[in-house]
């Protein structure tokens, strides 16, 4: 198949949907090629020139963007069958025709816009925050050792883009699995010197329905994560903590 640089035009096939209740359909576009274009640039051209490949005027494609530098995660979509960020996906690196679809793991609002609220509901279940009462000055917090700090920094790169959920075969309408990103969220908050005080609550939350038992260890998540977060390492670490917590609960002992 041809790449974008082989021709002076870019051929796009975009999966569209008028609203959450409507059937999806595909619409093709042909736009002028420019060097170093990303997918957002292509969508912006269509927004300014809403004419499809057949030369018919159409409604501009709807999508979301914010930071345009792979920080917000809001422009996640499926591009040539791979879930990724539209802002960091270059047209020059893709085969044509370029196929763009919304991430179907989430409810589609319109065209490429999705509703990722379920991810934040998952974070609520595992209490993925550091609870600190009051806003008064309580002095500096405890320090992390350097090894743990470096590990936590890698985990903190997660920006809830949802790409790992789209790639995971265990996240579907027949499963309650919260998704791969939750492992690293739990591990990150439990690694924090203050967050460690609520460690057991987070593990318990993740041992409930939809938690760690839903993971099939396919490792698709680590292949697509745009930040290279060590998700499989987090899966192993959280599974170990859950096993130890189960022993402690069963035997009523703190020796594990």
TrEMBL record:
Residues 149-177 form the 4Fe-4S ferredoxin-type domain. GO terms for biological process: respiratory electron transport chain; tricarboxylic acid cycle. Its cofactor is [2Fe-2S] cluster; [4Fe-4S] cluster; [3Fe-4S] cluster. Keywords: 2Fe-2S, 3Fe-4S, 4Fe-4S, Iron, Iron-sulfur, Metal-binding, Oxidoreductase, Tricarboxylic acid cycle. InterPro entries: 2Fe-2S_ferredoxin-like_sf, 4Fe4S_Fe-S-bd, 4Fe4S_Fe_S_CS, Beta-grasp_dom_sf, Helical_ferredxn, SDH/FRD_Iron-Sulfur, Succ_DH/fum_Rdtase_Fe-S, Succ_DH/fum_Rdtase_N. The keyword Repeat does not apply. GO terms for molecular function: 2 iron, 2 sulfur cluster binding; 3 iron, 4 sulfur cluster binding; 4 iron, 4 sulfur cluster binding; electron transfer activity; metal ion binding; succinate dehydrogenase (quinone) activity. It holds the Pfam family Fer2_3. Its EC number is 1.3.5.1. It comes from the Bacteria. Belongs to the succinate dehydrogenase/fumarate reductase iron-sulfur protein family. This is succinate dehydrogenase. It comes from Lentibacillus halodurans.
């Amino acid at each position: 198949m041809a790449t974008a640089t082989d021709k002076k035009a870019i051929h796009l096939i975009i999966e569209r949907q008028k609203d959450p209740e409507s059937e999806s359909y595909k619409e093709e576009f042909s736009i002028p090629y420019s060097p170093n274009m990303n997918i957002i640039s292509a969508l912006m051209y269509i927004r300014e020139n809403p004419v499809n490949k057949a030369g018919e005027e159409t409604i501009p494609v709807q999508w979301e963007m914010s930071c345009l530098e792979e920080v917000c995660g809001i422009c996640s979509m499926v591009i040539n069958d791979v879930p990724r960020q539209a802002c960091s996906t270059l047209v020059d690196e893709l085969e044509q025709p370029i196929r763009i679809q919304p991430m179907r793991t989430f409810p589609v609002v319109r065209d490429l816009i999705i509703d990722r609220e379920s991810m934040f509901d998952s974070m609520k279940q595992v209490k993925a925050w550091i609870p600190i009462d009051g806003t008064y000055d309580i002095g500096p917090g405890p320090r992390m050792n350097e090894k743990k700090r470096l590990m936590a920094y890698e985990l903190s790169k997660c920006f809830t883009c949802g790409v790992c959920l789209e790639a995971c075969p265990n996240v579907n309408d027949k499963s309650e699995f919260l998704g791969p990103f939750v492992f690293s969220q739990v591990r990150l908050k439990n690694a924090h010197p203050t967050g460690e005080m609520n460690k057991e609550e987070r593990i318990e939350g993740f041992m409930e329905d939809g938690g760690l038992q839903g993971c099939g260890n396919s490792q698709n998540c680590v292949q697509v994560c745009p930040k290279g977060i060590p998700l499989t390492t987090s899966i192993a670490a959280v599974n170990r903590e859950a096993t130890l917590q189960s022993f402690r609960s069963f035997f009523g002992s703190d020796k594990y």
